[in-house]
Amino acid sequence: LFDLEKIAASSTMHGNVAIPLIRELTRMVAESSPGADAYVHWGATSQDIVDSGLVLQLRDVLDLTRNSLANLSGVLAGIVREHASTVMAGRTWLQHATPTTFGLKIAGALDALLRHEERLAEMTPRVLVLQFGGAAGTLASLGEGGEDVASALAEQLKLQLPDVPWHSQRDRLVEVGGFYAGLTSTIGKLVSDFALLMQTEIAELAEPHGKERGGSSTMPHKRNPVLTAAILSEAVRVPGLHSTLLTAAMVQQHERGLTGWQTEWATLPELCVTAHGVLEAAGTLAAQITVDTEAIGANLGRTRGFLLAESVSMELARVLGRAEAHALVQRVLQAAEARSVDLATALRADAEVAGYLSGPDIDRLMDPGNYLGSTAAMVRRVLQRYDAREHLGGR
Amino acid sequence: LFDLEKIAASSTMHGNVAIPLIRELTRMVAESSPGADAYVHWGATSQDIVDSGLVLQLRDVLDLTRNSLANLSGVLAGIVREHASTVMAGRTWLQHATPTTFGLKIAGALDALLRHEERLAEMTPRVLVLQFGGAAGTLASLGEGGEDVASALAEQLKLQLPDVPWHSQRDRLVEVGGFYAGLTSTIGKLVSDFALLMQTEIAELAEPHGKERGGSSTMPHKRNPVLTAAILSEAVRVPGLHSTLLTAAMVQQHERGLTGWQTEWATLPELCVTAHGVLEAAGTLAAQITVDTEAIGANLGRTRGFLLAESVSMELARVLGRAEAHALVQRVLQAAEARSVDLATALRADAEVAGYLSGPDIDRLMDPGNYLGSTAAMVRRVLQRYDAREHLGGR
Amino acid sequence: LFDLEKIAASSTMHGNVAIPLIRELTRMVAESSPGADAYVHWGATSQDIVDSGLVLQLRDVLDLTRNSLANLSGVLAGIVREHASTVMAGRTWLQHATPTTFGLKIAGALDALLRHEERLAEMTPRVLVLQFGGAAGTLASLGEGGEDVASALAEQLKLQLPDVPWHSQRDRLVEVGGFYAGLTSTIGKLVSDFALLMQTEIAELAEPHGKERGGSSTMPHKRNPVLTAAILSEAVRVPGLHSTLLTAAMVQQHERGLTGWQTEWATLPELCVTAHGVLEAAGTLAAQITVDTEAIGANLGRTRGFLLAESVSMELARVLGRAEAHALVQRVLQAAEARSVDLATALRADAEVAGYLSGPDIDRLMDPGNYLGSTAAMVRRVLQRYDAREHLGGR
Amino acid sequence: LFDLEKIAASSTMHGNVAIPLIRELTRMVAESSPGADAYVHWGATSQDIVDSGLVLQLRDVLDLTRNSLANLSGVLAGIVREHASTVMAGRTWLQHATPTTFGLKIAGALDALLRHEERLAEMTPRVLVLQFGGAAGTLASLGEGGEDVASALAEQLKLQLPDVPWHSQRDRLVEVGGFYAGLTSTIGKLVSDFALLMQTEIAELAEPHGKERGGSSTMPHKRNPVLTAAILSEAVRVPGLHSTLLTAAMVQQHERGLTGWQTEWATLPELCVTAHGVLEAAGTLAAQITVDTEAIGANLGRTRGFLLAESVSMELARVLGRAEAHALVQRVLQAAEARSVDLATALRADAEVAGYLSGPDIDRLMDPGNYLGSTAAMVRRVLQRYDAREHLGGR
Q1: Among B367, D110, D260, D325, fewest CB within 10 Å belongs to which?
Q2: Mean of the per-residue pLDDT values for chain D?
Q3: How much is the pTM?
């Protein structure tokens, strides 16, 4: 309906886009309904128009995000189910620790995403509210009729009517930014782990490569994880944008501020679009990612069984106590290291150990699949929560 | 019970405070219950200890914050009631706009604080959860007994049991940081408005001054708003600390990270303490602040009635339409400015206006108290919500 | 020369814009110089292309900024000269303190801008360097010829040749971001003071208003300082963008990173353009701003002479010592406040004061223009530095 | 000399630490030199005291940093020399790319540190300036004597005398924060690469482990890189602190601000101490780090020669042109991958390749040490710059 470039050009003079828009609208109404044009914008101020428009856009983006979040959760739930028993090196401090499963690893991310779904559900009704207060937020120019007009407008736009205008109270918008910053950080953690597992020396995961995708301009062998890189590079932009909202847009002076409001115009849409893009791309990546279970198994053996040192130590602790058992196993590990043998061999060769553990005992303790503790129960609980929420129409 | 300096010194070597603490605890248990020392820390990893300790501290600080937030809301509700009819210049773009009331101004802040109370209530159960997962988050060293021990421990500490350990999923902590960043920003807006209203040329509000408080080291007449300054200067530190959590602490690698966790140690406690201090101080300031209704009234007259231009314009719009009325009033304003008279005088002197408005009409339109629109209804709604929540034991 | 949309679309697959660009270029070279196409991109990697292109753009923006910075400094130097003797209330803690001049106020900003000019001059040669290292930064594919090709390319592009490629060492770019963040913060302080001085109750400065500029959509009397608002609202976006560079783009892994580089693409150009726009707009605003010396004089009298309390106190201190004089003046101030008279009157009425100060003494001490200390010397020094730099061709 | 706790307690009332300090000092001077106490603090304001004290502390910390930076550069220069020829997999996008040397990798960091040394040298004289302006920055209370007293004080404190006071122009302090943020980011990149190279599956570097250092509370085999973790976890705190300076401390109102100054008190010292600690610890880590050249060699072979694909491709390009050669090598790589053989074998088996390359050609091309291009020259240039600066007393 509108000549957007003309409105944009004119907005520089007026300080916002509403004034030229209203002028155009008034002209159009005058043409179609002579007389009605006298009532265009009655009661409202520019910020009522711009803010309510923003809320309508937020309603759309939050809808999209709810769906994409459900999609990512669904893809991850699938991975959790498929790899609930895929034993993998658990890594702490970037070092092999004790075994875990790929399913449990992803269940941790799913668990966090289910919390983000909760936060989104709680936040949405707080955010989707009308802005309509007039010049100083009192609806003065509508006299006695302010309440009725506000209600009718809220109903028309299918937005909630807030108790007071929020021209200079922007906590709702910061909550939106904070939600997306938290969500993209969770995705950043997930995909950052993917990236680490894609390293040449680890290679447990890979991004699929098509004819063109991920090639190098100069190295013929290169398969760059381009989608992984794109997600990680965009996710990290969200906190800086959110920081701008917090430091610059929350303190808007008096009834309507001199600054801050305009800061939102460039910041919040970019934040939402970037974060939602990261979410969508994460869904695509998770659905495409290939899992090399052979490499996972091979890497489990990299430490010559050392990552099961705790397994042996805790078994011995039943007899020796935790501290003494810890010390004994450390001694055996040093022997294994000195002689460049694996832990099982060193255990079998140790006289003191022989007093407590038989050969079959050692074999059992050295099987990573036997040292998973509550892994299955944990995975089950997360999946149950996922399924329950599905059942409730969460998706 | 513990020699904290010794533990602190030793923690450098070990990379965290838990290892030397556990050593001391084990020694103490060995003395008091020989044999039981073998079971100290069984199943746990250092991070289980440090994180669960953090959650216990968070429980305390969130409790304190709930009370202080209720206190600030209560003080503000009192101001809203007292000044529901204190007519004040509404200010937009740092310029006088149309009248409002001091009560409505504060009601905006109260409205935001009630939303922060909601957010706190929603967040609390998500955050107050046990951390207990062992080396790689599988509780492997407890074999079949992991679930039972975890449940018993959660019950003992009166914390919820999460579905999976959250060693490297830190969204709960970022939510805490985000809550406080939002809350302090709302307080920052409130107190920033106070500061603007305390300026020498405006002087509608003042911070009380005791014998010593707020004096200058060199200027005998000076009454510096020191508490206002302290609140504003501290509030702005919270977003930077929250930004550190978002950018540095959310991406912790694999099962337990190499970095990020330690970043939280210095950041999250400082964030909570700073933000809570800001909240408490805001409660004190709001309770002490003095309101100069005479100055408020005097300032209302500063624009020679220009801030009621809209009042006249909207009255004329009923006859002339919005655009034509706007133009007519602008012409009268220019005349008033050229002749340095007030708007009422210029309106009375204008022939065209005389066709629409009588002298008494102009008097009525020039009374700021007659141009408050829905102010009373808005204030009433916010206070009703405040009272309802009080009734529900919100405080 | 290029079909940018086609290249953009293709860049998603490849992870950067260089690969499709090179393909197009190769095709074009093959057409115009058959055989030469075999040598297109020889030795280079995609990042060499994108980074060197970025540096060429930075050269342009830094040039523009040098000019705009000189322009703003020039405008401010003009204000300093014009208002070197315009006595104005000095304000601390947002309260009247002691007199200053508008010239000295602006000289403080000019002084800071001259430092920013220094920083820009120091930074520029560090930043304007070629990127050319090939796949892993070794120029391996050029064999023995790497140095010669690199030198020739640097000469061609008129860029300095760095000692090593800087594919994953991005301190130069962060320095650019930091420069602009500092510069916009200085401008933010300047224009924030302007905004405070434009408040309805102070009104010492004003933004010019044209027929359309700064009007309100609903209030006929409104003159919103729209350029002031635009500058302040944009300036505050720069720190968040700079924070993204610091937290996300400085740690690029190994020889060329998986992430961070792409983060720069969206962040650094936006940062430069936003900051440069703020600088230009500040030059425009400073050149247009109107100074109401009458209002400045009237505001000086707002405290009934209290802002000269120090003047009296320091005069008395010559006889009584600083502490006793401070106490005496505070007593007189209380009397003045209690009786609602000005400080001069209260001083004349005080018996103890009469022992030290005559009526003419009091008159002299109560003239703000007599209590400016080193103001003139300070202003002179800053202008001398400005002029010296002009002489050296700084502009 | 002072009872710090008493001063601290009293500072809450006064809004800063200077007022109670001056009171104590005045009392002490009165005792030791009766009469002189009347002149204590004459001419100064609280901020003069606090800011000049800060600058004296900055002088100390910048001195320490200059030394620690020279120390780190020296340690890195040693590594560069020692490992100039240690051939290592060059990694881009976290994937093996083409060979580089460990020396060149570290030379990149050294090159950046030499730039940080330049920045520090340029910044220092700008920052080490006296603050002395009195109540509103005019030195009014010193009458005609302001300039002389200021000069004498600057000489006494061995600080430069600025052209104007900088009470509310804080660009110098933000420059300090920015310097440290850049420096710690460079260190963060260096140590982040160390951490990646310490991963269990890569293990090219290791942090030394003493009897206690880096042990786990539960896993006997664990050797956690605790110093690496500490550096990385602290380095990432600096940008958030710097962001607080930029967003909250740069805009201080009018002659001396209501806020912002106090924000610096908690932020800038923490920033400097944290960043300097990171620098010192990086010097310690770099001096201690162990390099496993055997692992480096083994990892070079992980891709079965694929990381030399470019070497072959560029050799063939001399005959076939870049594009055709790239395509041929990609075909051979696919064959190698399909048959699970190394690249050399696949090249020898390819009929088309045989037309261009002999067996010895292939052997030469498959030696990573033959594909280093300008590596040696680059390393030489950086070391020459390092040595030249040493010669000039840079250290």
Answers
A1: B367
A2: 94
A3: 0.96
